[in-house]
């Protein structure tokens, strides 16, 4: 394994825009939820008439879909991701609009399918507004206390971390907005990190796990973790996800 300093330098300079994770290949692994969101989304897109993907990231998942509906739109609020998404999806004829989920720039009843993988925050009233009667919201959300092991390694105990993004709360909020939740599936998946570069890169990619993370501020903990990884002991964390399907009544 390369030196601690070399791994840090590499991870600090690597690109973290978009929602691709190929940089972690052979350096980290994550089990996937059993339902296969990308494939299920592709199936729904192939039969939709008009669809909207919210918080599309770099457009990676939409670009994997072999068949898109006659009208396909996407939004992204993070400027670096927006650039990637527009470049990636231009050849597919998808207009990626800069917008957050709280202010969707579309008329009432514009889409029969609204989707999102890992939205920043689902704005249920906006989702319900842009769906046609009988339309569907199909999404995979990040659940409570996702990667809490990494957060607590650097920041100590986080007793409040497990209270947000709870699927039960999201079901209540969706129903309060007038949607009917037809499916809710929950998964907890194992993640393993094998070198310190992978840790630094993922904390740059997902900065909400350790807010204001910098190498200098956490150097002693990084050195401790590097020693563990060099002993062949991976750092183990767990991601939480839930699949949610909600329908706007006819």
TrEMBL record:
Molecular-function annotations in GO: S-adenosylmethionine-dependent methyltransferase activity
Keyword Transferase: yes
Transferase as UniProt keyword: yes
SUPFAM superfamilies in UniProt: S-adenosyl-L-methionine-dependent methyltransferases
InterPro entries assigned: 23S_rRNA_MeTrnsfrase_RlmA (IPR052939), Methyltransf_11 (IPR013216), SAM-dependent_MTases_sf (IPR029063)
Keyword entries, A-Z: Methyltransferase, Transferase
Gene3D superfamilies in the record: Vaccinia Virus protein VP39
Lineage top rank: taxon: Bacteria
CDD domains: AdoMet_MTases
Chain ranges of the Methyltransferase type domain: 52-138
Pfam family, one: Methyltransf_11
Any single GO BP term: methylation
UniProt cross-references to PANTHER family, sorted A to Z: METHYLTRANSFERASE, METHYLTRANSFERASE TYPE 11 DOMAIN-CONTAINING PROTEIN
Protein name per Swiss-Prot or TrEMBL: Methyltransferase domain-containing protein
Organism annotation: Brevibacterium sandarakinum
